[in-house]
Design a protein that fits this description.
- The protein is mainly alpha-helical.
- It has one domain.
- 58% of the residues lie in helices and 11% in strands.
- The chain is built from three helices and two strands, in the order ββααα.
- A two-stranded antiparallel ribbon has the order 1-2.
- A hairpin with a 2-residue loop joins β1 and β2.
- α2 crosses α3.
- The chain is flat, with a radius of gyration of 14 Å.
- The mean pLDDT is 77.
């Protein structure tokens, strides 16, 4: 996995973040942005106490990821 979330701390693999953006393809740059934004949003919206409401946070974070990437 490229990243993990635990108690408000985001961790990413070094090789995932430390790439030369001038050599990366547009697809790789978009994937990197998507993963980072998705994990930041999940810190806020995906923490649920009940299993039956987890879908709300996951769907909201997925929507916001694509909306934010589209805006940038």
């Amino acid at each position: 996995e490229k990243a993990s979330v635990s108690y408000g701390l985001l961790t990413f693999r070094e090789e995932f973040l430390s790439a030369d953006t001038s050599l990366d393809s547009a697809e790789r740059q978009q994937t990197r942005t998507k993963v980072i934004v998705e994990h930041i949003i999940q810190l806020w919206f995906s923490k649920s106490d009940w299993w039956d409401s987890i879908w709300v946070g996951k769907s909201l974070s997925s929507f916001l990821v694509y909306k934010l990437i589209e805006e940038s």
